[in-house]
Structures are given as structure tokens and as C-alpha cells.
Design goal:
Distance between the termini: 16 Å
Number of domains: 3
Largest sheet: 5 strands, mixed
Shape: globular
Order of helices and strands: EEHEHHEHEHHEHEHEHEEEEEHEEH
Structural class: alpha+beta
Radius of gyration: 20 Å
Oligomer: single chain
Number of strands: 15
Strand content: 15-25%
């Protein structure tokens, strides 16, 4: 059996200490048998690959590698991938697979019909964004970049009421763009707002919605979420069908329960940079991921 390595970010300025946000994952992954190594996330963001991977080496040629870290722009991930291959690793997610799951416009063809109506532009031209909004003018909408929104400022930088006039739209746009600042990613996305079941609100007043993150390995659910009713597992064949449309071997699909009782996809992502939900026990997650990784490594039908 192969023994994959999981690559975690280290603590800033402490290359031998795990980033504290990943401590429980680090310990859980190691306890079930994964090899572990640390990388410098900040260096990778700056495309300083040699510095970022200076303490990372495979235990045997072509060792499978699974990233568990912070989000990276596609360009930085491609550099990281090249650096890992040069070191002798076999990263399970290729750059084009990462981008397909990471960027909303690239994921949309695989999720269309199962997710809110979505449209986008490249760049951040306000007039182009306003022109794009005409497709949504009669409905409520939200504004994002190609990866994330500014939902912490829900009312003035994310949510767009139906029939919003140009002056107000541009105010929301500028607030959104200012909030995303240097983290702004590639372009502007508008999505139709969908009525998700709410379970109260957090201390900032943001709604707590009925949403579940599902991890997939080679198109199969890694670990079921906690039992509840209604459950997204009632439609597991639907989610696995969609996961299999993606090139990625390790990805996430976030599904939400709507007020009409149906489920829709609100987001997909790369499995390497998607956080574990608070309700998902790291030990349970990594034990299941280990079993899945061993099954695929020993299957003669596994796609490479």
C-alpha cells in the first residue's frame, strides 16, 4: 500500500511548528498513518517555491501528496505543483483540476441547473459589472469575486436587492471591491440569491444557514455528515454524479436547504484548501480519507 503525505502550512516564522489552525488535523492525520510535512504558505503565495518547500521531501519516489492548507491563487498553486513534482512528489491535484473546482466560472458548467443562476466578467470594471447586473435586475442577487464574497458586510457589500438602481449598485460594488482589496480574485461574479433555511444569526448579525460541506475523493463521499432530517444524504447520488463531472480527485460541494424543502449547491471548492466544518471530527475525517486513499491506490481502474 502507498503511504500518502499530507502537506500542512507551518506557523509563520516557525518552520517546524504546525499552523495552529491545523493542529487537530495535523495530529489526526498522523495518527491514522499519513506521512506529514510542513510548508511555508507565505513563501508559496510569493512564488518563492524553493523557500516554501525547503523542509519538504518525499520518503519514496513519486509519493502521493495531498495538500491541506490555505487558499492559493491558481497561478501560485501551479508554481507549488511544479515545485512538488520537481522534488519527487505526485500531487493528487493538478493545476487545471485545482482551478476548475476553485474558480466559480470554471465550476459553473458542471453545476449548472443545480446551483443559482450565475454570470461573470473578468476584471473589476464598474460599468461592465453594472451591465452584467441587468441579467439579475428583477431578482435579488449577491456579488462575489471568482472565489469569495464580502459577506461580513452583507447589507452594503454583498447582497443586492431586486430592482437596485445604478447609484446604489455602484455603492455596493465599491464597498465589495474595497473589502476584498488585495484578495480580489480575477473578476466579478453575480449570483441569484436563493432563500436558504436560517437557524438564527451570529454575533455579527449574519444569518446562520442550513448548509453542509461534503468532501469527495475520486467522486465518492469521504465521510457522511451528522445525521439529521432532512439530510443532504437523501440526494447523495445527485452530489456524487456532479462530483464525477469534475476532473479533481479531491474536492468539496457545499449544499444548502432551501425554504421550499429542496437542496441546491451554493459552492464547490478544492478539497485541499476547503476548511473542515466545525461539526466534522478531524479523526473521523482523516480515518475515512486514509481508507479511501488506500482503496484508490490499489485499484487497477484508478484514473491517473
Amino acid at each position: 500500500m502507498s503511504n500518502p503525505l499530507i502537506l500542512f502550512p507551518h506557523q509563520p516564522f516557525s518552520p517546524r511548528e504546525i499552523d495552529t489552525e491545523f493542529t487537530s488535523e495535523f495530529e489526526s492525520a498522523r495518527s491514522v498513518g499519513f506521512d506529514i510535512s510542513l510548508y511555508d504558505h507565505e513563501a508559496i503565495e510569493k512564488h518563492e517555491i524553493c523557500r516554501g518547500l525547503k523542509n519538504t521531501n518525499p520518503k519514496y519516489p513519486n509519493q502521493p501528496l495531498i495538500l491541506r492548507g490555505w487558499m492559493l491563487p491558481g497561478e501560485a498553486y501551479a508554481k507549488l505543483y511544479q515545485g512538488l513534482v520537481k522534488k519527487g512528489f505526485n500531487p493528487i491535484t493538478k493545476p487545471d483540476q485545482y482551478e476548475q473546482a476553485h474558480y466559480i466560472p470554471l465550476a459553473y458548467p458542471q453545476t449548472k441547473g443545480h446551483t443559482p443562476k450565475t454570470a461573470w466578467i473578468e476584471g473589476d470594471d464598474p460599468q461592465q459589472a453594472w451591465n452584467l447586473y441587468q441579467e439579475f435586475n428583477s431578482k435579488e442577487a449577491i456579488i462575489k469575486d471568482w472565489v469569495k464574497s464580502a459577506k461580513s458586510r452583507w447589507k452594503d457589500a454583498c447582497y443586492i436587492p431586486a430592482h437596485t438602481q445604478k447609484e446604489r449598485f455602484l455603492e455596493i460594488f465599491q464597498n465589495f471591491r474595497s473589502e476584498r482589496s488585495k484578495l480580489f480574485n480575477r473578476g466579478v461574479v453575480l449570483r441569484e440569491f436563493i432563500p436558504i433555511v436560517e437557524r438564527g444569526s451570529d454575533i455579527r448579525g449574519l444569518p446562520i444557514i442550513e448548509e453542509t460541506r461534503l468532501f469527495f475523493w475520486h467522486g465518492k463521499l469521504v465521510v457522511p455528515p451528522q445525521a439529521k432530517s432532512p439530510s443532504p444524504l437523501d440526494e447523495i447520488e445527485r452530489w456524487q454524479m456532479i462530483a464525477n463531472r469534475f476532473q479533481s480527485k479531491f474536492m468539496t460541494i457545499d449544499v444548502a436547504l432551501l425554504t421550499d424543502g429542496t437542496w441546491k449547491i451554493v459552492e464547490v471548492g478544492d478539497g485541499g484548501v476547503s476548511g473542515l466544518p466545525v461539526s466534522l471530527d478531524p479523526e473521523r475525517f482523516y480515518a475515512s480519507l486514509w481508507n479511501h486513499s488506500q482503496e484508490t491506490s490499489n485499484s487497477p481502474c484508478t484514473n491517473q
